[in-house]
Write a structure and sequence with these properties.
The complex is a heterodimer of chains A (245) and B (162). Chain A is mostly helical. Chain A is built from seven helices and two strands. Chain A has one domain. Chain A has a two-stranded antiparallel ribbon with strand order 1-2. In chain B, helix 1 packs across helix 2. Classes of the chains: A mainly alpha (245), B mainly alpha (162).
Chain lengths: 245, 162
């Protein structure tokens, strides 16, 4: 039986710098990056781009097939969610952002299930980055469609609500961040733990069953979490642009 | 173990924006175009189907009217034919009757004529026989004039006999 750390070290097939970081010095500040997360993100981006490009090359109007069908289904599903949550005119420009959220997060979640790779979303830096995008988009859309009167809702109906609304505003990106991170990181840790816990002869005698079940469940969780992140982003923006009263 | 946020956040935001721009330019544009083209295509199909259905209904109504007309005409033709047939039959019967009458008449006339002729012939034979008989009875020579007057008398008498 291996400890989690040992299992992770054995899974480090590609020789990731385990605890190291890339540093970029701009002026006096030192920017630190997690190399593993970045590399996995780039791989994910390439896969997403490949999938999307393959799905939309030589598209058929009358008889869509294969990847085009899947991509169209995803696109139309999320477009339906956007149109349900806000005025389709206001939501039009949001569609491409949330579709990208969904596909990117989905691929990021699933890539961690490939042995020796990890999810970019198992790093809270990634999820916080995405959640901050949502945070900014909420304000951008709110101000775009309501002007400065968007900020009125902070003090309505009473000024007394101001701190509560501010807390709510910051709770949105934080909950988005840690819900996604927790689910995916937890899944990855359990994959490593199951591999370490049930190593050697146990695997031959059926110890892999637990891993297989957990992998299947992780696929499900990957879809659900990508959907929740997308759905909540849409709902938050829909709240911001909705015409109250 | 505390949370250690670092510049990876910025890198991830930049990565996401790059991916977003790429997908928007390369993927979503043609996809949206295809989707809207398809919905337009479907809408066109539906309206075209609706139009065709209406046309078909019109055609059907037209055909039904034509069929009704044709049936009426056929009925008329049959009736006319039946009437013509009856007329012809009557005409034929009429003609046949006429013919029969004519034949009968001509036969009667023929009979009459034959009768006349037979009577005339009979008279002549009767005359010559009478002369022969008279000659034999009288047994004397008679000149032609006396003979002729005798014949005339005889004929007159025979004619009165009739």
């Amino acid at each position: 039986m291996l400890s989690l750390h040992e299992a992770e070290q054995q899974l480090n097939f590609w020789g990731w710098p385990a605890n190291g970081s890339w540093e970029l010095i701009v002026g006096n500040t030192v920017l630190q990056f997690n190399p593993k997360t970045l590399i996995m993100t780039w791989i994910t981006m390439v896969l997403v781009a490949l999938f999307a490009v393959c799905a939309t090359r030589s598209m058929s109007l009358n008889r869509p097939k294969g990847a085009q069908n899947i991509f169209e289904a995803i696109f139309e599903f999320i477009r339906g969610l956007v149109n349900d949550n806000m005025d389709p005119k206001k939501g039009y420009s949001l569609i491409s952002i949330v579709v990208t959220y969904f596909i990117f997060i989905l691929f990021a979640n699933l890539i961690g299930l490939v042995p020796t790779l990890t999810s970019p979303t198992a790093d809270y830096n990634t999820t916080l980055g995405l959640a901050l995008c949502t945070f900014i988009i909420i304000y951008v859309y709110g101000i775009r469609y309501k002007g400065l009167s968007y900020f009125k809702h902070y003090i309505q109906p009473f000024v007394f609500f101001l701190p509560i609304v501010i807390i709510e505003d910051f709770a949105k990106p934080i909950t988005l961040t840690f819900r996604l991170y927790g689910n995916i990181y937890g899944g990855e840790v359990l994959i490593a733990v199951l591999l370490g816990l049930l190593g050697g002869w146990t695997h031959v005698l059926g110890g892999f069953v637990a891993s297989v079940i957990w992998l299947a469940f992780s696929i499900f969780v990957g879809f659900i979490q990508a959907f929740i992140f997308t759905m909540l982003s849409i709902a938050y923006v829909g709240q911001a642009v909705a015409d109250h009263h | 173990m505390g949370l250690e946020f670092n510049a990876t956040i910025l890198a991830q935001i930049v990565d996401f924006v790059i991916l977003l721009i790429f997908l928007r330019l390369v993927v979503y544009k043609p996809l949206v175009k295809v989707l809207s083209a398809r919905s337009e295509h479907i809408a066109n199909n539906i309206s075209a189907a609706e139009k065709e259905r209406q046309e078909a209904e019109q055609l059907k109504a037209g055909y039904e009217a034509e069929m009704r007309l044709a049936r009426e005409q056929a009925q008329e033709i049959i009736q006319k034919a039946a009437k013509t047939g009856e007329d012809q039959a009557a005409e034929i019967v009429e003609k046949a009757k006429g013919e029969a009458t004519r034949l009968k008449d001509s036969a009667l006339a023929e009979i009459e004529r034959e009768k006349q002729r037979a009577v005339a012939e009979l008279r002549e034979q009767l005359a010559s026989l009478s002369v022969l008989v008279a000659g034999k009875i009288i047994n004397r020579r008679m000149d032609d004039e006396i003979q002729h007057s005798m014949i005339e008398n005889f004929i007159k008498e025979a004619g009165e006999l009739q």
